[in-house]
Amino acid sequence: VLDVLPELARLPNPVLVDCTAAAGMEEVYVAAFGHGINVVSANKQPLALPQAKRDAMHAAARRHYRVYHYETTVGAALPVIETLKNLVRTGDRVIKIEGAFSGTLGFLCECLTMGEPLSGAVRRAKDLGYTEPHPRDDLSGLDVARKALILARELGLRLDLSDVALSPFVPAEFLAEDDPEKFLQDLVKADGGMSARVAAFKAEGKLLRYLAHIEPEATGPKITVAPVGVDASHPAATLRGAEAFVAFHTERYSQFPLVVRGAGAGGDVTAAGVLADILRLAQNIRGRKG
Amino acid sequence: VLDVLPELARLPNPVLVDCTAAAGMEEVYVAAFGHGINVVSANKQPLALPQAKRDAMHAAARRHYRVYHYETTVGAALPVIETLKNLVRTGDRVIKIEGAFSGTLGFLCECLTMGEPLSGAVRRAKDLGYTEPHPRDDLSGLDVARKALILARELGLRLDLSDVALSPFVPAEFLAEDDPEKFLQDLVKADGGMSARVAAFKAEGKLLRYLAHIEPEATGPKITVAPVGVDASHPAATLRGAEAFVAFHTERYSQFPLVVRGAGAGGDVTAAGVLADILRLAQNIRGRKG
């Protein structure tokens, strides 16, 4: 990619659009900014890098007056990042961000609540194309932790992935298996424990959800990602299937949090969000004629 | 205001910020655009003008490459207009927009549901500063109709306020009284009918809400604003107090609508939204250095 940047830079108002999930793209972005190229990206990896690397990337964008939009990294086309940026830059104090960011785990929560055993639900989700090629990559919660870190960093928190208090969706011992088929077979052993957990929640009138919490002023971990039981009155209780949800509790939105929810994953909404980022950029450029 | 525009235009990157609810501001905006001044506005009036006048305003902005931001005209700082613009410009097909846009009427719905008589609830809302100086201006539903029209026009619908199928919150005969105190006294006569309506909804397991519906492909009225009964499973059923809500049902968001909710009125969130509009503008201008 680095080789084509000089050529791309000759186009009027060039934009590099990264729809990969590849590692190492931060170097491409830095080079792109240096060539006067803007970046629109759906790739979470560069945003979840250790803080110093991420700082270098943003510094390069600023130094060359280039734009780096990444709205689709959390909740696809749902207005999450830009909404948070607006809260921060208008001086609101964010007290808590709460969200369900994994369509896959949302689907599994629903299956488990309906009484389906975990291993069967995961296999079905895989067959439906809802999971990564290796379902472990969803069940580890790492993808949700990345999204939570992306939001936390918008608050100016200087934290890394290792600072996230991450409880996987399934017990950690199952996550070691590298072979997807063997992994699915082993998962049968987790069925009983998972069903018991869901039943225990049900007995308390609660529902299983996989939630991320960001509390910038917490004395303990500021980012927590874990399976939890929520009351029927909790906004996440009404989530269905792969629906995503984020609630911003702030000083201004203290009585009624600012809530965004809807389809938060999928090729079509992600593509739409990437296009919206590109058009936002194009609008700014249009403004330059004035 | 017109007199100061030439002076304002000499500032670098001038922005006219309209936090009034005054009529006639569209002429000021057109003149401002002509002077190279951008406009950020929380004023609904210019956006609800007859279509030809509104077209002229937008044409002036385009002709002079100026920006006109008005995010706070619907739902204060909630991301409503920009979210809708993104759906439209990325080619989504909007099937239905549903929303509760009046904090005042939301508050009244809650009071009535708790068994409070209408006239008492309105007087209390007035005393709390939740209503316009004359509560009629809230109870007529006109403010909600304006917001619905603003959203409908983002879809390219060429409609005017007179095209809105508007049912006021209270029977229309009460709205003629010009004196606020006399109005409140007369309203006692509406108490029985209103309580009966709420009780009838309750018997069906429904709750009173004041909702706007925009259905661009409807054969009948495309914009409807009316008090309705909603099921407990309806997203508006869980609205509390002055909370606002909007759901976008689109081709892409068909299974799970894109929903935004939270505090949708009040000086603090409106001011924050106006500031966010100004900063968005400033960011674009910053981009021009490149």
Based on the model shown, name its key terms.
41% helix; 11 helices; homodimer; alpha/beta; six-stranded mixed beta sheet
Give a description of the structure:
The structure is a homodimer. Chain A is an alpha/beta fold. Chain A has eleven helices and nine strands. In chain A, the strands form two sheets. Chain A has a six-stranded mixed beta sheet. The two termini of chain A are about 35 Å apart. The model of chain A has no long low-confidence stretch (mean pLDDT about 95). Chains A and B meet through helix 4, strand 9 and helix 11 of A and helix 4, strand 9 and helix 11 of B. Strand 9 (about 260-265) of chain A pairs antiparallel with strand 9 of chain B, so a sheet runs across the interface.
Describe this structure in a few short sentences.
The structure is a homodimer of 290-residue chains. By secondary structure, chain A is α/β, with parallel strands linked by helices.
Helix content of chain A: 40-55%
Distance N to C terminus of chain A: 34 Å
Give me the secondary-structure category of chain A.
alpha/beta
The most extensive interface between chains reads:
A-B, 49 and 49 residues
Overall pLDDT confidence of chain A? 94
Low-confidence stretches of chain A: none
SSE arrangement of chain A, N to C: HEHEHEHEHHHHEHHEEEEH
- Biggest sheet, spatial arrangement of strands of chain A: 5-7-6-4-8-9
Number of strands of chain A: 9
Number of helices of chain A: 11
Q: Based on Cα principal axes, name the global outline of chain A.
A: globular
Oligomer: homodimer
User: What is the rounded Rg of chain A?
Assistant: 20 Å
Query: What fraction strand of chain A?
Result: 15-25%
The major β-sheet of chain A equals: 6 strands, mixed
